[in-house]
């Protein structure tokens, strides 16, 4: 009668023989003490190649972001990327352009984001619509994703438009004004 550990040894031995015969050993080459082909101790080759594929993707993304930032095409702030198509549009069309591109109209959640959006407003020297609007009935100010605002940067005496001005524009000094939604304002999106 063979002991339990003998069965395990026999099973492991036949696995190694089979895998060598079929040249399929990379799946188990990461077993403790069996380095993978690239010498990465304990990491199976399949994981090691995922790791290096991810590392090259990361490097490529870094390069692309660097080029786009250098050319003033994007601004990175925290996890957000901000970008403008340089076009002026009414609020609904501006929002639509951003959503079609996979983002939404930029809505600053803090001073740092507000400053990053202001930099784009200054770059184009055009007031921009923010992704913020007044709720139809209550008039409560919300971001277009429906969240109530926890940050604001109203210009002095704003918002003053009552029911008349349901959208929000950013001035070149970064302050906000409630404004009619049918003006032509710079489109700035966040992704
Ligand atoms: C205009 C509009 C208003 C704004 C005032 C400020 O009337 O842009 O939204 O509040 O100017 O003077
Ligand atoms: Ca106003």
Question: Would you mind describing this structure in some detail?
Answer:
The chain folds into 2 domains: 1-71, no CATH class; 77-191, Mannose-Binding Protein A, subunit A (Mannose-Binding Protein A, Chain A). Helix content is 36%, strand content 20%. It has 4 helices and 8 strands; from the N terminus they run ααββαβαβββββ. Alpha-D-mannopyranose is lined by residues 158, 160-161, 165, 177-179.
- Distance separating the two termini: 66 Å
**Gross CATH architecture of the largest domain:** Roll
- What is the overall pLDDT average? 86
SSE order, as H and E?
HHEEHEHEEEEE
The CATH class of the largest domain turns out to be Alpha Beta
Ligand roster: alpha-D-mannopyranose, calcium ion
Main pleated sheet:
4 strands, antiparallel
The portion of residues assigned to helices is 25-40%
Taken from the alpha-carbon principal axes, the silhouette is elongated
The count of β-strands is 8
Sequence stretches where pLDDT stays below 50 over 5 or more residues: 4-13, 15-34
Radius of gyration equals: 28 Å
Reading side by side through the largest sheet, how are the strands ordered? 1-2-8-3
| CATH H-tier superfamily of the largest domain | Mannose-Binding Protein A, subunit A
The tally of domains stands at: 2
Q: Strand-residue fraction?
A: 15-25%
Q: How many separate helices?
A: 4
The CATH topology annotation of the largest domain reads as Mannose-Binding Protein A, Chain A
Give the structural class.
alpha+beta
